[in-house]
What we know:
The structure is a single chain. This protein is of the alpha/beta class. Helix content is 35%, strand content 24%. It has helices spanning 33-44, 56-68, 93-102, 109-112, 119-128, 144-156, 192-201, and strands at 6-14, 17-20, 23-27, 82-88, 134-138, 162-170, 175-183. The longest helix has 13 residues, at 56-68. The protein starts with 5 loop residues before the first strand and ends with a helix.
Amino acid sequence: MNQQFYISFHCSISDNTVRYNNEEMFIGADDDIAAFLLSVYQHLGIKYPKFYKMDNLAKLGWLAAEVLLKDFDKDKYQPTDIGVVLTNASSSLDADKRYFESTKDIASPALFVYTLPNIVIGEICIRHHFKGENAFYIFERFDAGFIGSYVSLLLETGQLQACICGWVEMTASGYKAVLFLIEKEGTTAFTTENINKIYSTANG
């Protein structure tokens, strides 16, 4: 990273807890993943009917983006200036398994739509009208170095002016989302050390 960029906001959703800039903003009581995600949605007071059609991975990433962007003035940028770069370890495996089970009876088109991990990016971009660079990468584990270097390159070369990035993982047994909003000005440096520190403070 030659030029310094900054973490404007960050959030996490894991272990039945939603955090925004390290502050707890919601703690759920339900251990069922789908029920917990619904409780977060209801807590945020959002009216977005399409939410109910999403798979769990898309719901998790979408909700994390809602929290991340709650104080963000996106109008200071053009839609093409804001991008999304996400990563996880299991791709869309949670939806893939559910879709496979549905084929034993009648294949579900509603589930088939979500058998690509980048659909969560699409849901975020549709909601917020973002039209910048976007990509979804699969790694065995969270890779702060890759996120830092790739997002910095997008900003350094002027392809983006702001970027949402991070980790959104959903499996049948657990979930974890940690998102960052990166801009060219701020106070918290966008460094591998700071990325890892914020990621590690999220439970799950």
